[in-house]
From TrEMBL:
Residue ranges of the TM segments: 24-48, 54-77, 89-108, 114-136, 157-177, 183-202, 230-253, 265-287, 294-312, 318-342, 354-378, 384-401
Membrane topology: Multi-pass membrane protein
Principal place of residence: membrane
InterPro entries given in the database record: MFS, MFS_dom, MFS_trans_sf, MFS_Transporters
Keyword Nucleus carried by entry: no
Name the record gives this protein: MFS family permease
Occurrences of domain Major facilitator superfamily (MFS) profile (ranges): 22-407
Localization terms from the record: Cell membrane
Keyword Transmembrane helix attributed: yes
Keyword terms, alphabetized: Cell membrane, Membrane, Transmembrane, Transmembrane helix, Transport
Gene3D superfamilies (alphabetical): MFS general substrate transporter like domains
């Protein structure tokens, strides 16, 4: 690793305006706001489609632009806070999210939507690892005797919880306010700017070097003996994020095509159900070891992937929501356990690089399957597309389980 985490902030005590304990919650709140903004457009895609008349596959391209931005940013700048400082990177990433909101407002055509999502993804890619590290370090200073796993759990819940509330807020605003394609972005523009100001008052936890190291993209190193289990964990993360991508990109569209329910609030609620279940499951099963969490994660995802196509084929709306909740619980447990597994396989000097590889694989799950579904919808019905998606996902989960949970 190329950073030095310290137990005290690197600013004079007189200039410190927020304690480390208070700073922890400021970062958690700012992280939640940015993540919520990243899923806010989910219920809005259908409105853009109705207004401009573009086909469903365009929605998947707009959504995939976000994931491409995350992957590129994670690879190029996800590690720079190790020497540039956590606070500076979080402030910058939050302002990048605010820029994305401005693009949504100023250029609401398809090209503008793609650019806005690409910019938003770049901000999240820079933010996700940095905010997670900053939360852990602030907690260590504020409560040095606390269990380190508690900050990891809070980070995981913030991650899934932030993603969950975005589509719910978007759905509510679409349903009940005038100007549904402007008001949500104006609200979050104000929240993001306020978050950036608040983060600027939080203590730094990384010692700045006098000489800045030469820049390089994130390297990815894998211990040879750990490769089978690592690729199992990465595949599990890919599959989990693919399910997430299905809902965050296409839930409102599926509500309309498969269930003939045009309500954007209902589509946003379906996405909220998946991500909220992921956050709640992480809390409920936090006491389990990694291996039992993995087993439950695989089981819940598999059950959800069986229930979802049955619900679509039978037009069973509430069965669809039940499958979403079960699959969401599997996503939360499976992804958290996959991260823990990957971290345990790496030597300390290479842990960051191994986790970077895992996150890159996970976010690839947001791009490839969603684009594939969008292409499939050109030729097949939504029901057939969901069945094919579920079958491929079950195959991935079986492959991953054989490697990460050897008999």
């Amino acid at each position: 690793m190329t950073f030095t985490a310290v137990a005290r902030p690197q600013v004079p005590a007189a200039s410190r305006r927020v304690s480390h304990g208070g700073g922890f919650w400021v970062i958690a709140t700012a992280f939640t706001v940015s993540l919520a903004f990243s899923t806010l457009p989910t219920p809005l895609y259908g409105l853009y489609q109705q207004r401009d008349g573009f086909p469903t596959w365009v929605i998947t391209v707009i959504f995939a632009a976000y994931a491409v931005g995350v992957v590129a940013s994670l690879y190029l700048v996800g590690h720079v806070s190790d020497w540039l400082g956590r606070r500076r990177v979080i402030v910058g990433a939050t302002l990048v999210e605010a820029l994305s909101a401005l693009v949504f407002l100023a250029w609401p055509d398809v090209a503008g939507l793609i650019l806005a999502r690409l910019i938003g993804g770049a901000g999240i890619g820079a933010l996700v690892a940095t905010a997670t590290a900053h939360l852990s370090e602030l907690r260590l200073v504020a409560k040095p005797s606390a269990d380190p796993a508690s900050s990891g759990l809070i980070s995981s819940v913030v991650n899934m919880g932030g993603l969950a509330i975005g589509p719910l807020i978007g759905g509510l605003l679409v349903q009940y306010v005038a100007g549904p394609l402007t008001v949500p972005y104006l609200i979050f523009l104000g929240l993001l700017i306020a978050s950036a100001i608040a983060v600027s008052l939080v203590p730094e936890t990384v010692a700045r070097r006098e000489e800045r190291p030469a820049y390089r993209p994130q390297r990815i190193s894998l211990p040879r003996a750990a490769k089978p289990q690592f690729f199992g964990a990465a595949t599990a993360a890919f599959a989990a994020f693919a399910i997430t991508g299905l809902f965050t990109a296409l839930a409102p569209t599926l509500m309309n095509l498969a269930f003939h329910e045009p309500s954007k609030l209902l589509g946003g609620t379906a996405t909220f159900a998946v991500l909220a279940a992921a956050a709640v499951a992480q809390i409920l099963f936090a006491g389990l070891d990694t291996r039992p969490q993995l087993k439950l994660g695989f089981l819940f995802m598999a059950v959800g992937l069986v229930v979802l196509p049955v619900a679509v084929l039978t037009s069973g709306l509430w069965l669809f929501f039940a499958g979403a909740v079960v699959a969401g619980a599997g996503i939360g447990l499976g992804f958290r356990a996959a991260v823990a597994t990957a971290a345990s396989l790496a030597e300390p000097a290479f842990r960051g690089e191994v986790l970077a590889a895992l996150f890159l694989g996970a976010y690839a799950g947001l791009v490839i399957p969603v684009l594939a579904i969008g292409a499939a919808l050109v030729w097949v019905s939504s029901s057939v597309a969901v069945v094919l998606f579920s079958a491929l996902e079950l195959g991935l989960l079986y492959w991953a389980a054989r490697r990460i949970l050897p008999l």
